[in-house]
Specification:
The chain has 314 residues and is mainly α. Among the domains are: 92 residues, no CATH class; 125 residues, no CATH class. It has a two-stranded antiparallel ribbon with strand order 1-4. A two-stranded antiparallel ribbon has the order 2-3. Helix 1 packs parallel to helix 4 and helix 14 crosses helix 16. The radius of gyration is 21 Å and the shape is globular. 42% of the residues are buried.
C-alpha cells in the first residue's frame, strides 16, 4: 500500500525533512511502503502515529521544496528550462552531475532527467530515473538515501523526491554544515489546535487570513501598496504562511540553504504577481501583527467548532 495518508507522509519527509535527517527520511519511506515492517511494528495506525512524531521531532531542511518550486517556475531559470526541453536524457543527466553549474540548474536538470512530471503537466517527457540515481551514487550520494528516493519517486510520482539527492550532494560539500536551533513565533493552542496550523492549506485558516487582511490596518495598507488587487488574497495567504507557519525551530544550516530559501519564497510570491522587493515589507507587516491574526484564528475556529457541535447534536 501507499494510501493517501502514507503518500502524504512520504512527501512530507522529502519536503520538510530532507537531508537534515537522512535516517528519519529512510525510516519514513520504509514505514510507508513495507507492509510486513508495519505489521511487525504494530500495524498501520501505530506506525503512522510513530512516523508523524519522528518527523516532527527531526531536524529539518526545506531546500528540496524550495528547489523544485524554483526549478518549475522561477524566471531566472526560464532559459535553462527551455534548453533542457530539447536535450536528450543523457545530456540532462550529465548536466545534473555538473558541479560547476549552480545548484538550481543541476536541480532543474535532475527533474527533467527523472521523467517525473509535475501533476498533469506534459513538460519533461521521458526520463531515466535509474540512470540518474546511479549517477548520483557515483558522485557519492549514499545508497540508502538513493533507494528511498527511488521508492518514493515511483510511489508518489512527485518531482520533489528527486531534489533530496541533489541537495545532499550540494550540502555534503560544506564541511561546516550543522543543525541550528532558532526561535519561532509563539503560537497559542485552542482546543488542541496550534494556531499556526490554520494557514492557507486549511479552509478555516484561509478564512481567518482573509479577515485579517481586511481588519488589520497595517497589513491592509501594505497589501494595497505592494500587491495588485487581483493578487491580494493569495499574497495574504503566502505572507501569513511564511510569517508563522514556515519557520523551523531546528534546521540544517549549510552554505547555500539561505539563498535557496530566498529563491523559493521569491518564486512563490512571483507566481501570484508580487515582486521580490515587496516581500520583506509584506512579511514584516504580518509578523508585527501576529497577535491580531491569532485572535481572528481563535474567533473563526471557535465559531466553527461550535457550529460543528450544534450540527452533530441536531
Amino acid at each position: 500500500m501507499v494510501d493517501a495518508r502514507s503518500a502524504r507522509l512520504l512527501v512530507i519527509a522529502f519536503e520538510d525533512i530532507g537531508v537534515a535527517s537522512p535516517g528519519a527520511l529512510v525510516n519514513a519511506v520504509t514505514a510507508c511502503t513495507d507492509p510486513a515492517w508495519r505489521k511487525q511494528a504494530g500495524g498501520n495506525t501505530a506506525v503512522v502515529s510513530s512516523v508523524a512524531r519522528m518527523l516532527a521531532d527531526a531536524p529539518k531542511d526545506r531546500s528540496s521544496d524550495y528547489l523544485i518550486c524554483t526549478a518549475r517556475g522561477h524566471p531566472s531559470l526560464a532559459e535553462t528550462r527551455q534548453r533542457l526541453g530539447s536535450l536528450p536524457v543523457k545530456a540532462r543527466i550529465d548536466m545534473a552531475a555538473d558541479t560547476t553549474l549552480p545548484v538550481t540548474g543541476r536541480a532543474t536538470a535532475a527533474w527533467y532527467a527523472s521523467g517525473i512530471e509535475w501533476g498533469q503537466e506534459q513538460r519533461v517527457g521521458l526520463g531515466d530515473l535509474a540512470s540518474l540515481l546511479a549517477t548520483f551514487q557515483d558522485l557519492g550520494a549514499p545508497g540508502p538515501l538513493l533507494e528511498a528516493t527511488r521508492i518514493a519517486a515511483r510511489r508518489t510520482r512527485e518531482p520533489i523526491t528527486i531534489m533530496v539527492p541533489v541537495v545532499w550532494l550540494a550540502a555534503d560539500a560544506d564541511r561546516h554544515k550543522h543543525v541550528v536551533d532558532q526561535p519561532v513565533p509563539a503560537s497559542p493552542v485552542v482546543d488542541g489546535v496550534p494556531l499556526f496550523g490554520l494557514d492557507m492549506h486549511t479552509r478555516i485558516g484561509r478564512r481567518a487570513i482573509e479577515l485579517f487582511a481586511k481588519e488589520n490596518t497595517a497589513v491592509s495598507s501594505c497589501l494595497d501598496q505592494h500587491v495588485p488587487a487581483r493578487s491580494r488574497r493569495e499574497a495574504a495567504y503566502l505572507s501569513a504562511f511564511y510569517a508563522d507557519a514556515a519557520p523551523l525551530s531546528r534546521r540544517l544550516q549549510w552554505f547555500q540553504a539561505d539563498a535557496i530559501e530566498k529563491l523559493g519564497i521569491e518564486n512563490d510570491f512571483l507566481s501570484v504577481g508580487v515582486m521580490p522587493d515587496a516581500v520583506p515589507a509584506l512579511l514584516g507587516s504580518v509578523r508585527d501583527n501576529l497577535d491580531h491574526l491569532n485572535a481572528i484564528r481563535t474567533r473563526v475556529l471557535t465559531a466553527a467548532l461550535r457550529a460543528n457541535s450544534t450540527g452533530q447534536t441536531a
